[in-house]
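Give me the fold.
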Amino acid sequence: MIDFGEFVENIKDFYSQGKKPVLISAILVVFFFAAAMIVSIQSFDDGKKTASVKELPPEPLNADQALLLPDGPSVPSTYTVSRGKKDNWSQEEAEQWFTIPDSAAVDMLEKSNDSIISDITGAAP
């Protein structure tokens, strides 16, 4: 049989060691009661029942109805989605879009490319 006198003496010895065990025990008791109150409040059913997805009756899908597109910005008739690719430019297009670079621009591009190459290769032999 359990000796309650010895049990009480062990508890008295535990709490007589200082304030730290008493403080830890009090904090644990407060947290336990707070958790018990939260669980009891959450599990309390107030009579309001909400329908979940599983409780709703399934509606059959009617595929014979027309597709309803959402309202959105309209595309003007002059808008071209894509254009055909030409193999060659015409002379007018070449004069409009292509300019022949001068020698200063070519020299500047050459120096820029040489510096990029030297940065990449570094001190490699």
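The chain has a mean pLDDT of 81.
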